[in-house]
Design brief:
Pfam family, one: YbjQ_1
Number of helices: 3
CATH superfamily: Hypothetical protein apc22750. Chain B
Strand order of the largest sheet: 1-3-4-2
Shape: elongated
Helix content: 25-40%
InterPro entries: UPF0145_dom_sf, UPF0145_YbjQ-like
Family: Belongs to the UPF0145 family.
Distance between the termini: 36 Å
Protein name: UPF0145 protein G3I74_07255
Mean pLDDT: 86
């Protein structure tokens, strides 16, 4: 599955837009992570436990979006975006969304070839 943040796919034309596809996941903080995070917060620096949690959440959301696009028999997802939001104290949602499309090989610029 081709995933792009752009609205076009180099070397291809969009034959058909199949619609919005999305995947999301909600992750809650973990007491053990919170204790480590609080200690790290005192001394500064990256909170690796939360970074790892967000990486896992991002991967899960993107994989769910891809699964939805595969059900539509899409070749690619364009205009991919990732959004996070707090849904409650200690829990965050990560949403991945984009437009599922069918592609065809680009025929190239026919006018350029004739000059």
């Amino acid at each position: 599955m081709i995933l792009l943040t752009t609205e076009t796919v180099p070397g291809h034309e969009i034959e058909k837009a199949l619609g919005l596809v999305r995947g999301n996941t909600v992750r809650a903080k973990h007491l053990g992570r919170d204790i480590v995070a609080a200690l790290r917060n005192l001394v500064g620096g990256e909170i690796g436990e939360y970074s790892e949690m967000m990486i896992e959440a991002r991967n899960e959301a993107v994989n769910r979006m891809i699964a939805q696009a595969e059900k539509l028999d899409a070749d690619a997802i364009v205009a991919v975006r990732l959004v996070t939001s707090q849904v409650s104290t200690g829990a965050a949602e990560l949403l991945a969304y984009g437009t599922a499309v069918k592609l065809r090989e680009s025929s190239g610029d026919k006018n350029a070839a004739s000059h």
